[in-house]
Design goal:
The protein is α+β, with helices and mostly antiparallel strands. Helix content is 33%, strand content 23%. It is built from 5 helices and 11 strands. Helix 3 packs across helix 4 and helix 3 packs across helix 5. One of its GO terms (molecular function) is acetyltransferase activity.
Length: 252
């Protein structure tokens, strides 16, 4: 049986596609990635959004987005679990001056670099691919400041006018595949970060055969070299508690 050759079209990858590919390769080459997840009940939060959306948009002069509250929750959780706000590094050792035949290889030097700032990357996807501007000092911003900064970054990405500094110095990343209908997945943290948080699609779920709730999977992919499951799940449960115990109301 003769199998016909497949017709192919060769496409040159864009600059952004090459940058994405390079970052993914570098990150995978240096990390031991594992995942953890929790289910978050967002019923009360969605009700809160429906009631107060217009009020807060008027106060903030910016759109009401769930990212505002996720970044606030992440920033607070990182203060309790700072291991997620870090980078596991292999430090290059100086080359030996001895002859190759007698030189003894130096053991690698490892470090965990703990970031003092909380700078949260915000993953956006458009027709050109993935791009991640950074909300600097997220822990020091109130809801109004977060709303305005996220809107500035969103418009800058949309118009292609963000300066390079807005893409630098991230310490952890938030991704929202749920906005595109994603219900699960495995994201990869940027090269100099240990973790990425993903919020998946908010769905109607029936509980106890009578109560309908709005729930979403909150997923964390992290470098197991930098921290363990205790910190990872503690971090996720802190975010979960932020929404389920309605802590967001105390800040608004």
């Amino acid at each position: 049986m003769i199998v016909p050759e497949l017709e192919l079209e060769t496409v040159e990858p864009s600059f952004r596609r090459l940058a994405i590919a390079d970052n993914l390769r570098r990150s995978l080459a240096t990390k031991v990635l594992v995942a953890a997840a929790v289910e978050v009940n967002l019923t009360d939060f969605m009700f809160f959004r429906d009631i107060f959306k217009k009020k807060f948009e008027s106060q903030w002069q910016a759109p009401f987005r769930i990212e505002i509250f996720m970044l606030k929750a992440m920033a607070e959780a990182l203060k309790e679990y700072p291991a997620l706000n870090s980078w596991f590094v292999t430090v290059p050792t100086p080359a030996s001056s001895e002859a190759p035949s007698t030189a003894v290889a130096s053991p690698p030097v490892y470090q965990i670099r703990m970031y003092k700032s909380i700078n949260i990357g915000l993953a956006f996807a458009d027709e050109k691919g993935l791009i991640v501007p950074v909300v600097k000092d997220a822990d020091q911003k109130d809801y109004a400041a977060l709303a305005k900064e996220i809107e500035r970054l969103y418009q800058g990405v949309k118009n292609g006018k963000l300066p390079p500094r807005d893409y630098k110095s991230g310490t952890i990343t938030f991704n929202n595949p749920g906005a595109l209908g994603g219900v699960d997945g495995f994201s990869i943290p940027p090269p100099e970060q240990s973790a990425i948080v993903s919020l998946h699609k908010i769905e109607d779920v029936q509980r106890f055969n009578k109560c309908w709730c709005k729930e979403a999977k909150l997923n964390l992919v992290f470098d197991h070299q930098a921290c363990d499951g205790r910190e990872a799940l503690g971090f996720l449960n802190s975010i979960k508690s932020y929404f389920e115990s309605e802590k967001y109301k105390s800040h608004t």
